[in-house]
Amino acid sequence: MREKLNTLPVSELRKIAEEKGIEKIYTYRKAQLIDLLCGIFEKEEAKKEENQVIQKEKPAVSKEASAISSPAPSSSDSSVRASYAPSFQSARPPKNI
Question: Range of 49's domain?
């Protein structure tokens, strides 16, 4: 990375430094900007690697587990009401004697 930064003009290094949030970029010389940017890039790379390790450690959620955690159907759904409602259609009224 340092080699690539060495090939850039100071104006480009200042633009990159400004994008990375470095303040007072005009007070630094080219070598100082390169040192600062290399430090920032190294920290960013370390964070990326750390995030990749964390993602690898997390178990993948199976379809069964996601079905268990899915919300219950809403009560306004007519198919749900029909399946849970008692069936009055099969019950016969009492005979009058």
Answer: 2-57
